[in-house]
């Protein structure tokens, strides 16, 4: 079977992964309406493509907080990559580095940050943080990441509690015995690891904007906040001095009924007024989705599930295939829309369909 | 089979109830478009969730006309609970009391008000009234309810005649011989009980707003009017001195083609201007539906069919399961939307999708 | 099988009629989108029902140009009733008279006007006219109808040529040998009757508004024009002195892509400003559809295909069943919407859904 | 099987063509959403038909840049007609000439321009040009076409690179050995013909508006630019002195996510303000689609896939069948909308549905 577009990787993963793992990656909260809206919303955006512009030399590079990447697609933080491929996050790191883009490693990795760093030396990586009730755990993680050369700290803001994913409950999802949340080994007492590999209630639901100052006190890394969906919170992010926002609804896995990220992007970009960078994850399935997100003001997008499908297909190599397809499709979409470089992409390029 | 969400109870009830009973509970009028709209309308409302708010201590309690309940979900009045479970309304009363919420007992109960009151002493209950042509029957019911400690009188306003429910006609629906409308025994002459357990045309289609004054003369109980769908009627309700409104279309069983209750809620809340409490029933299937209704101004919602599914599953215990699931889902939705108590829920939390 | 609603009659007719006859009655032009829109459009109109109004005495009568009918539903002109029932239009006339409503007999009847008149003496009937190239034919028809006691002349305006109904072409539709367009026997030369029972091109596509004056010169009957869909034409109708308009798209059988009649009704009613009566046909399938049409300004509606389904079921008796169901449903819808008589029905009763 | 409407030809072609050829003709880019939107968009446009206008004499002729054609439908440029019928573009030319309309021959024809011209002497034809990196190739083509009597030069503007058509990639689409891009034989070095019959990257992606002046220097033919979708580009087209615009998205084969052509037509027509002629291709499937396009300002439409279906059915004869059906349907739609000649068609005839 030819791997022509991302749906081919999705079909492969669905067929070859154990059901419990597929269900975990695919899961959305409740009725999965937000998960599905993330994708449907792109179909309501129409291009206004421009013709007869010289697109013989295409430049699809961009910069994330000053660091150049080969094209505006990075790897979003997702957990448990060993569920998709034995080498887990080490493969992810190698693929991202080979393709010269940014990989946001998750707190919930099944490899240590040290293993990740060693797997692909010199790679451009950010570290994603959940704040635990035991703040010492979080502090130690941040400082380990900084010491290992991670270049940004991504704070996930939308998970004070875990969303209700029906299939995981039905499946009684838990990590297979040979997999561990390796970065958190020894961090918690007792043996109960029933909540996605951690003791129940280990995350801190009392985190507020003031904790940005606490994080700032721990590290020199730029702070990017992930999970913002409203202009009010976007303004608060700017006011609290973070360096970037990832517009995200956690792949539709947290509050079902929230907006598609591409819809929320518009009000966040307007609120931020260019003061900090805005990124997006959720629903990116083809090159033209990337172009739409950039046209609406995202500096870069991140892929979650498609990266896992790539890993499930052929590990590092499969993820590179996924990235390469997106890269080719994005370049082609830009050219067909009349843009020779990302700096030519703008709001004029799209309109919202009235449907 | 794990009972994870309300759809699981629905599937169970559909599978295990006699078809004639399932059809009766499921029925909508005519093409069932209003029944189905009640549910679809929630999908067009999007949350605007707020992040990084301290949601470590959640308070989901509210008050109905001053009486505290454990969370803003009560049991709507529905008839014939013995069709779902042998103990009928006694089980309903026990479950509601165990969960510390309000149960609106129907005129069309298959247990007497006395049995209901005795089944769960001290429970918080309202009594739902249809006004009969024989006003003495209605007067006696109201006064019995008040004497038994029911704390509110709910007048159903949308049933001057019974809606046309095609399946009931095809099935020749009637109560099994061992079930009776026990609260109305001896109230009517003759043997014909062909209209849902009553003689034909026993309800009074001449009831008007002036009859509120008549009800007021019969009882000291607060009067809540059920079935209001327009701002004009909401204003009349305020003007006639009732204490509350339940925005309801009778589960889509009366006039097909009317609005979804969540859509009608907006104009009713605006018209009432906070002078009396506004509740809603219809289409509540998960915790986030409750949150949407509260964000649009409902003080509380009531569940009809889901309560019957719970009864059909395991009687009192099954209904508690249903309520507990809704409670957990509601608490989680609130937290994920950034609200630690119901007082923080407001209009800012939702927007209507343009779709 | 119980005959509970009009869909039951439709299913019966589809099952029992010869395919060629069913297809002919069911046919729409081209892709049938206007035919289907006629029905779908009702689903986008929502009631704003009013509660607690005395609906104990219901009056559903109305008047057509001064003549009282039992409820605001008449029989639209459709051709070839013998395809549905052996007695054809004689049965139709009897049913309409028995139910005390108006029957518009078609030029394309398979019974003579004389037979129709004799079948139900004293019935309230209008005559529907196509203008033929041979004007003498049309003149003679109008004068026969007037002499026979028909009380109105309905000019069909939307058929200068016959619409393209694919199934009729595929089926090679033609009348069975024992059926004739009886009112036109002897009117045309030659033997070719290939266009729906007439010689090709016998209708006159040069008819214009000036021909209203010609019709006026032929008869004292009130003239009703059928097939108007725009405000411009509605104004022309008023200016040319007709007595009524039937908003119609010929059941979606002529120009595919035109508006649903219930949508077009709004602009026609506005344009007419109450100067003449406005009626509607197309898409009426239940009592609440009638209520919506009246709320939007129609004085009365006419049913086409449902009348044929009733005939196909049991002739005169079946059509009475259809009318009785509509009558009951209409009365109930009115009551549930809070209207005790047709004079209380108004624009306030409905709103267009944004969907 | 009767060939009643264009869908019948589509079904025939799908059944009888080799899958690889059918897929190539049917292909859209990526998810095919723009391809499908081209058709769906017509369903959202409603006629406002006018009645009682004399339509006994119908005149459906129009003119393209001064040359009369029998009705406002021409043949859009599509490649590889021999995939549909052995005689290829010679049959196409004969059918177009027989029906007295315009045929735009593609650069990617499988017959030479000389063969095309000889097949139907005196036919009205335009030549469609892709500009190659080797400009001498393009120059020679233009001058050959002019010398052979082609009356217009159509520059395709939306293909700096070929769109991503998944099925062609899966099928490994290439021309069968006995077919050649005959007009380009000898034009390129080497043997690689893997990109739709040409060497990879032979088209010039650096073409800009300035190249219009270069084309103008090569030929006296009027220049028509194909692929414009925005008002900005429409204004540029006027400013650069072209004679016509074809609003086109290449049948949805280039940038997926662009607008339906019938939607884009509106803004292009407004921008052009009547200074040059505007045409459209994409999604025309029945006569009423043509009427909608003309009502929105197109001077003429062109058919792509339907022409190929006609060829696949019976070559020249099949294509004439297709054109004749469209002609009959268009004439009928005009008459039913109240227009006796194309000059009576205007914006007043249509409205956009709010759906």
UniProtKB/TrEMBL annotation, chains A, B, C, D:
Biological process (GO), any one: fatty acid alpha-oxidation
Catalytic activity: 2-hydroxyoctanoate + O2 = 2-oxooctanoate + H2O2; a (2S)-2-hydroxycarboxylate + O2 = a 2-oxocarboxylate + H2O2
A cellular component term, taken from the record's GO annotations: peroxisomal matrix
Binding site for FMN: 77-79, 106, 128, 130, 156, 226, 248, 281-285, 304-305
CDD domains (alphabetical): alpha_hydroxyacid_oxid_FMN
Record key words, sorted: Flavoprotein, FMN, Oxidoreductase
Positions with a binding annotation for glyoxylate: 165, 250, 253
UniProt-listed Enzyme Commission number(s): 1.1.3.15
An MF annotation (GO) of this entry: (S)-2-hydroxy-acid oxidase activity
Coiled-coil intervals, chain numbering: none
Cofactor(s) the protein requires to work: FMN
Residues annotated as domain FMN hydroxy acid dehydrogenase: 1-355
Listed Pfam families: FMN_dh
Enzyme class: oxidoreductase
Top-rank taxon, per record: Eukaryota
Active-site residues, Swiss-Prot/TrEMBL: 250 (proton acceptor)
Family: Belongs to the FMN-dependent alpha-hydroxy acid dehydrogenase family.
Protein name, per record: (S)-2-hydroxy-acid oxidase
Organism of derivation: Strigops habroptila (Kakapo)
